[in-house]
Design a protein that fits this description.
Elements (H helix, E strand, L loop, with lengths): L2 H27 L4 E7 L3 E8 L2 E9 L1 H5 L6 E7 L15 E6 L3 E9 H31 L36
Length: 181
C-alpha cells in the first residue's frame, strides 16, 4: 500500500478507535440512566436516546390542526432519567426494530438498535489496521532474516524460489558476512 493511503488508513483507524471507546462508554452508562437528546420544535423533532444497552432514533412531525396549536421554536434539550424497563416487543428482531408512524396528524419513524453492534462496527477498522501492521512487520523480519516472506522457510539454500510454497522472492535477502541485496 502506498504511503498516503497507509497514512489515511491509520488516521481513519484512529478515529474509528476513538468512536469505539465512546460507544463502549455510552453502552456502559446506558445501564445507569436514560440519556435523551431532543432537537427541533414541538411540531417537528428528532430524538436520540440510549437506555439499557439500546439506542433509539426517533423522528416525529405533526400536521394539520394539531401542528397549528404547537410552538415552532427550534431548540435542543438534553435529559437524563432513570433507565427504561426493557419489556418484550414482538417487532424486535435480534435487537433491531423499525416502526413507521403514519397517522392522520402525525408522521415519523422510530429505529432502535443494540449499542454493542455499533461498538463492534467501530472496532473493525482498528482491528484490520493492527493486523495489517503486524503482517508488514512480520514480512520485514522474515526478509531481513533470509526467510520466505510467505511461509517463513529458510531460503539460504535456494535463493530463486521457496521450495516449501513456491514463492519467488522479490528482493535478495542479506547474507551473513557478505553483500546483501
Amino acid at each position: 500500500m502506498r504511503r498516503p493511503a497507509r497514512v489515511f488508513v491509520h488516521l481513519a483507524a484512529g478515529v474509528s478507535g476513538v468512536c469505539f471507546v465512546i460507544a463502549v462508554g455510552i453502552w456502559i452508562a446506558s445501564y445507569g440512566s436514560r440519556y435523551t437528546l431532543i432537537v427541533g420544535s414541538l411540531r417537528s423533532n428528532r430524538t436520540f436516546s440510549v437506555s439499557r444497552g439500546e439506542a433509539s432514533v426517533d423522528s416525529v412531525t405533526l400536521h394539520g390542526e394539531l401542528a397549528r396549536t404547537m410552538s415552532s421554536d427550534d431548540e435542543s434539550r438534553w435529559k437524563k432519567d432513570l433507565p427504561d424497563d426493557p419489556g418484550f416487543d414482538p417487532e424486535t428482531v435480534a435487537g433491531f426494530r423499525f416502526h413507521r408512524i403514519n397517522a392522520e396528524d402525525v408522521t415519523g419513524f422510530s429505529l432502535s438498535f443494540p449499542i454493542p453492534v455499533v461498538a463492534a462496527l467501530f472496532a473493525l477498522l482498528p482491528l484490520a489496521d493492527v493486523l495489517m501492521i503486524r503482517r508488514r512487520r512480520r514480512r520485514g523480519r522474515r526478509l531481513a532474516a533470509g526467510l520466505c516472506v510467505r511461509c517463513g522457510y529458510d531460503l539460504r539454500a535456494s535463493r530463486d524460489r521457496c521450495p516449501e510454497c513456491g514463492t519467488v522472492p522479490t528482493a535478495q535477502p542479506a547474507t551473513p558476512g557478505g553483500a546483501g541485496g
